[in-house]
Amino acid sequence: QKEVEQNSGPLSVPEGAIASLNCTYSDRGSQSFFWYRQYSGKSPELIMSIYSNGDKEDGRFTAQLNKASQYVSLLIRDSQPSDSATYLCAVNLFTSGTYKYIFGTGTRLKVLA
Amino acid sequence: KAGVTQTPRYLIKTRGQQVTLSCSPISGHRSVSWYQQTPGQGLQFLFEYFSETQRNKGNFPGRFSGRQFSNSRSEMNVSTLELGDSALYLCASSLDRDRGRSSGNTIYFGEGSWLTVV
């Protein structure tokens, strides 16, 4: 089982809709969670970090964390064509005496104008 | 505040050659990590340095090496290049990645170095 799993997509949503991106992780020792956005040919850019159960909102973005179910999601409200990118989920977990940053393979989002 | 700076941005090398990539972290950041990204494998962790010491290492052959200097700047080297080493090499910095639930463990990426091996 992969440590961080994401549906590769593409996830297609119409402009103005809510895009919902999901990520599950296998290690209950995971302590912090991140969403990165990566445009084609560019490097990953941090969107959100979340550490506690519940929702965290930042503008059009909401990160949701459920540690009991071991998933973290990202909601993008009022999706715009400029949101079309690959979204990477990452977790920071403590293992073998140190912290490791594990990335999922990403979900490709396409927002249709 | 300047971000993570990587040089060179693009380079083409021949099989068998070696390459050195450089990374300057965000000012004040002491942890530097390196990742390889390819279309098929996604983001693969290479190694992490903190206070000039390698703190973590991924599953890459010994041809891949790195170091960190006293000013936190880091370099990675790949010797005896193979075609499969063609990738985007990303450097990321954080205050200290070895923190659990602290914002200090957030990593920020540079723009990357695109390496093509022919």
Report on the structure:
The complex is a heterodimer of chains A (113) and B (118). Chain A has 113 residues and is an all-beta fold. Chain A contains no helices and eleven strands. By secondary structure, chain B is an all-beta fold. Chain B has no helices and eleven strands. In chain B, a hairpin with a 3-residue loop joins strand 4 and strand 5. Chains A and B meet through strand 4, strand 5, strand 9 and strand 10 of A and strand 5 and strand 10 of B.
In short:
Chain A is built from no helices and eleven strands. Chain A has 113 residues and is mainly β. In chain B, a hairpin with a 5-residue loop joins β7 and β8 (74-78).
Summarize the amount of helix of chain B as a percent range. under 10%
Global geometry of chain B: globular
Taken from the alpha-carbon principal axes, the silhouette of chain A is globular
Distance from N terminus to C terminus of chain B (CA atoms, Å) equals: 37 Å
Number of strands of chain B: 11
Low-confidence stretches of chain B: none
Helix and strand run of chain B: EEEEEEEEEEE
**Strand share of the residues of chain B?**
over 45%
Largest interface: A-B, 22 and 23 residues
Structural class of chain B: mainly beta
Keywords:
heterodimer, A: 0% helix, 60% strand, globular, B: 118 residues, mainly beta, seven-stranded mixed beta sheet, four-stranded antiparallel beta sheet, 0% helix, 51% strand
Strand and helix map with partners:
The complex is a heterodimer of chains A (113) and B (118).
Chain A: E1 4-5, E2 11-14, E3 19-25, E4 30-38, E5 45-50, E6 54-58, E7 61-66, E8 71-76, E9 85-95, E10 98-103, E11 107-112
Parallel strand pairs in A: 2-11
Antiparallel strand pairs in A: 1-3, 3-8, 4-5, 4-9, 6-7, 7-8, 9-10, 9-11
Chain B: E1 5-7, E2 10-13, E3 19-24, E4 31-38, E5 42-50, E6 53-57, E7 64-68, E8 74-78, E9 87-94, E10 108-109, E11 113-117
Parallel strand pairs in B: 2-11
Antiparallel strand pairs in B: 1-3, 3-8, 4-5, 4-9, 5-6, 7-8, 9-10, 9-11
